[in-house]
Design brief:
- The structure holds 2 protein chains of 2 kinds.
- By secondary structure, chain A is mostly beta strands.
- Chain A contains no helices and 11 strands.
- The N and C termini of chain A lie far apart (37 Å).
- In chain A, 36% of the residues are buried.
- In chain B, the strands form 2 sheets. In chain B, strands 1, 3, 4, 8, 9 and 10 form a 6-stranded mixed β-sheet that branches. In chain B, strands 2-7-6-5 form a 4-stranded antiparallel β-sheet, with no helix packed on it.
- In chain B, a hairpin with an 8-residue loop joins β8 and β9.
- Chain B is globular and about 40 Å long.
- Chain B starts with 8 loop residues before the first strand and ends with a strand.
- Classes of the chains: A mainly beta, B mainly beta.
- Chains A and B meet through β4, β5, β9 and β10 of A and loops of B.
Amino acid sequence: GAVVSQHPSRVICKSGTSVKIECRSLDFQATTMFWYRQFPKQSLMLMATSNEGSKATYEQGVEKDKFLINHASLTLSTLTVTSAHPEDSSFYICSPQVNTEAFFGQGTRLTVV
Amino acid sequence: DAKTTQPPSMDCAEGRAANLPCNHSTISGNEYVYWYRQIHSQGPQYIIHGLKNNETNEMASLIITEDRKSSTLILPHATLRDTAVYYCIVRVPLKFQVNQGGKLIFGQGTELSVKP
């Protein structure tokens, strides 16, 4: 099966700082990357969709200047939460897609204090 | 918005079959039905998907009604490790990726509790 590596699994940062989350597809090339976030006891909420080499498309209500997505290669995408605030504390999950299959990272638990 | 409706929770006895229903009455002809599950604090795990025909793999079976407006995921012999939230998803095609899958919009899912 496809291997997705998301790092870090858990991060605590101070309010106002930025945090970068990496998502790597280790044994396949992902043309499309989805980023989700999940608040406690809620479902996954799609934040944005990106294609390698192109700008990401953000879902309604998601600030593109706050959640910076880079998809520079077919095996690596990053999500940077800029100027993080406590309300950004959440579980962030990447989902690289190849053909019709979407796989998921293990998630990153972000806590902003 | 998600195009599926699932019961919020279900219980199942260990060793018995777990049948998880899903309604997707507005599904379009080219949209697939996907099932994922999520165990607490982990990323979702793919289970199975289908378009029209029933599908079976080592994890589960997927039964899709003839009119495609509903489906049932069957875990034939549920174990305690199958306790998770199960998501039924209709895959919306991405406009810029013809025949290349599409967004996965998650609904609230069904919280399945397998009990000894």
